[in-house]
Design brief:
Layout lengths: L3 H4 L1 H13 L13 E12 L2 E9 L9 E2 L2 E3 L6 H13 L8 E4 L3 E2 L4 E8 L14 E8 H5 L4 E5 L5 E8 L2 E3 L3 H13 L18
Parallel strand pairs: 1-7
Antiparallel strand pairs: 1-2, 1-4, 2-3, 2-8, 5-7, 6-7, 9-10, 10-11
């Protein structure tokens, strides 16, 4: 798949906002013990076209060394967008306003007890990244072309009869749910214009912390 959606920032922002506005997102209702987190799918210009930012988390604390989207636990009184943007600033030094949010995808009910709310942004001038060494081990970019490619999602049969999604972003770079599920829904809804749900996606045991 090629075209202005994957390479031109204004075209991406216009299309993404329209498709997210037309998407009837699913929210996880409040429940005893449920915790909430917000993450950001942040699309920026990158050599060869537009790309989404992923991080490898610092090798300490929750989700040590795992692939993830910038984001984290919501503070009291925060909306998902407010918390996700605060975390984007704290983790990568990107300070955006709520008006820059293009829309949101489904809450993902993670097996760790979190409902994770992904928002989509595409800042016109994000400025330089300033990763926090306390939270971020490394920063990576995955091109929208790669996310939209037919061979990026792979469904691996499991012994219980289910299938495990693997998002193959590059040789040796495979991302599973929850992050992989949110990237897959972003691909389906925003890049390909198809409605798709992810709440039932399997997670590897090591992501359940």
């Amino acid at each position: 798949m090629t075209g202005p959606l994957l390479h031109d920032l204004p075209a991406f922002r216009e299309t993404a906002a329209a498709r997210l506005a037309a998407f009837p997102r699913t929210a996880v209702p409040d429940a005893p013990g449920l915790r909430r987190a917000g993450v950001v799918i942040c699309v920026t210009p990158h050599p060869g076209g537009l790309a989404a930012i992923l991080i490898k988390r610092a090798y300490r604390g929750r989700n040590a060394g795992q692939w993830g989207l910038p984001g984290g636990v919501l503070e009291d009184g925060e909306t998902a967008a407010q918390g996700a943007l605060r975390e984007l600033d704290e983790e990568l030094g990107l300070r955006l306003e709520p008006a820059e949010v293009l829309g949101a995808l489904d809450d993902f009910p993670a097996s760790s007890g979190f409902a994770i709310s992904p928002i989509v942004v595409a800042p016109a001038d994000p400025g330089p990244l300033r990763p926090s060494p306390d939270e971020v081990h490394s920063v990576h970019h995955v091109s929208l072309e790669r996310l939209a490619a037919d061979d990026t999602p792979r469904w691996v049969p499991q012994l219980d009869g289910g299938e495990l999604l693997q998002m193959r972003l590059a040789p040796g770079w495979v991302v599973h749910a929850p992050t992989g599920a949110m990237l897959w829904q972003f691909r389906e809804v925003v890049l390909l214009g198809r409605h798709a749900r992810v709440a039932g996606f399997l997670q590897p045991d090591w992501t359940r912390r």
